[in-house]
Amino acid sequence: MKLWDIAHSRTGDKGNISNLSLIVYDMENYEMVKEKITAESVKKHFKDIVKGEVVRYELPQLGALNFVMYDALGGGVTRSLSLDKHGKSLSSFLLEMEI
Amino acid sequence: MKKIRIGSGAGYAGDRLEPALELIEKGNIEYICFECLAERTIAIAQQEKLKNPSKGYNNLLEYRMEKVLPLAWKNNVKVITNMGAANPVAGAEIIAKIASNLGIKGIKIAAVIGDDVKDNIEKYKDVLVWETGNSLGELDGEIVSANAYLGVEGIIEALEMGADVIITGRVADPAIFMAPLIYEFGWSLNDYEMLGKGTLVGHLLECGGQATGGYYAEPGKKDVEGLGKLGFPIAEVLEDGNFIITKVEGSGGIVNRHTLTEQLIYEIHDPSNYITPDVIADFSKVEFHQEGKDIVSVSGAGGKEKTGSYKVSIGYKDCYIGEGEISYGGPGAYERGLLAQEIVKERLEIRGVKFDEIKFDLLGVNSLYWNEDKDYIKPEEVRVRVSARTKDKAAAAVIGEEVETLYTNGPAGGGGATKKVAEIISVASILIPKEDVKIQVKILEVN
Fold first, then answer.
1. What ipTM was assigned to the predicted interfaces of this complex?
2. Cα angle at B342 between B337 and B345, to 5 degrees?
């Protein structure tokens, strides 16, 4: 199945840094998601988009992870050539990951 | 225990107005705050101010205030906003004029200034720029604006002076919402635990409908009723810093753990170190509890001592971006789109135009994501998009020209070509000592 089946996400942007929340619908899935969706696996999934490192933060009481992706927005919101300069749609790409 | 209700009137510069009016009329609120400044907004406003010294505030200020002022005055709701952008004083004068025209006598309007540090920017030429890793003096492009993210102080001073409407330039987004809490509850500016809680109130409110089910709907997974009449969030804050988030009964949207968790993490990096001018907030232990339909209690935020610096956003003339687009449809649309891209590449070589970066997209196929391992579907309709960045305005225009000439020279059936060139104002960030900034409040009273 895809992450989309069990979790939701929203993207935030600051300069050339994108952050993606990953929030499980059902708390029972949190540990599995935490185990399988790591900073490394997210970096691999975004390999053609994110040039810098990916750092993961955990908020277990909310069933949530936060992935901070550096050098991720084509040079930053102001000068990116992307149609979606803020990377708003990257959250949906995260949810495409298989789990 | 004393409590204060604050409404969020806008999530960004161009946001809807009806939800704010609904909050003032039906939200039983004491304050309504409009957060309207994105990273680049002030740089653009500064250029408007250069052309016309009486401009440089939010373009919707007049439209909003004509509707907001009479309702807020009648319902005893105070208004706080950063719609002053590059010119809070001119913004305050406009608000006073509108109030006067509406016959609102005795209303006090305050402008908070001091965030604009452009006149002294030379003294920071050796300071490191976050985005480039080089010193500010090495920045390649004319500086058009420099504004410090102020904290709560100026807004609190304005409230102490009896202001009914407060308009600022650049302030940290949460400060707009936290300042009235500090003023009402008498929290100390050194009580970082409380300021962490107040910052969370601001963080959850500052994006308007993003807390109440806006930017959240996913049909079949996360259904949200009434998005066309989405209600904006209200925080009901207790003196001890605990609070609930809710919205006006009967308005569209949802407030639950999921909508608030998305907003909690929005634009946050390390949840235990969210740096603002007033506090380093800790959101890592925050908990949400559903207390009723669209009522969620929030607890667990904390904070640590603030830093001695202000972040300054510097707008500078960076480059030009040229863009061109054209569409292909029907059988073979994908292949014709690819051919169109190849032709443009060849044409740019023939013309010998160089770019700092160039990007080729097929909208409907790979414009949002590009993962080489992915086997993309071949749609029956594609839109070719070519965009490039350069310091040379004339070179930027070549992109659109070479996409447009595909009309008569390119693959069959290309239609709907568009082209544009945009001057790009980018943002460079530095830190400056807080003592370099002098915050001032100017009050206008309408009689």
1. 0.97
2. 130
